[in-house]
Amino acid sequence: MWKYTLYLFFSTIISSHVLSSNAPSEDIQSAVNFMQNLGDKVSDIVRQKTGDEKRSSLKEIFEHDVHHKSIAQFVLGRLRRDLKAALAEAKDDLEKESIKKRIQDALDEFYKAYKKSIIRTYLSSFENGYKGGIFKATHGRKSGEDGVTVYSTLDRQNGTPPLNLHWVLKPICADDAHQCSPDNKHWKVVDLRVENVSQAQKEKDETESIISKHRGNCTQGVRRLCAVVALEKLTEEHKRLNRAWKEKGSISTTSPSSKTAA
After folding, report:
1. For the segment 101-113, what is each residue's pLDDT rounded down to a tens digit?
2. In a domain, 1, yes or no
């Protein structure tokens, strides 16, 4: 009897291992397929459309297939902890509620402004730089708990070496639900690394620089609100850049990926 029990025990372990090792492989291939399909769609748009029609079509893709909130939260870094600390420093419940509302309003405004900034950056990178290129998603690797990094190349057909693009993807629930079935999850881009340079990390470094500047200008009287003020100033900066880009009506060259891909 004990031999049979032992057999069942090890059989269960082996079966579980097989399932767990197969599932990531399926996820990785699914992510690679997603990225190849996305790359093909971008290539087709860049080749076949021009002007406002091209920009509108690319914008639609980047709105749907990039998870802006995940990137925005990463970019904010430690400021998110500082915002929580501001609540703890409130003098009473009334002030706490007031600060809580101000923080939530500031975050909502930032997420909206930063979403436009991300789309602006991706448009800057691919509206012209993708033209005539051949995109190929070659393979993927597990990244973090549930993410996948998809490795791809862009052959620009101009005699220069192919551009290496690494896409970090995560399965995101529809409507950002906290709990959902596997069928309700979709791959979303949360970072793009051009020649091993992370766009998200670059944005985070620039964000920390802006935040530090506004912290330095924070007066003693509103010390506990410095994080909130810094976030509001950061949002104003993104809104300003987005307005300038829209009014200019041409491609921004501020991102390293736009310079590299051109």
Report:
1. 999 999 999 999 9
2. no
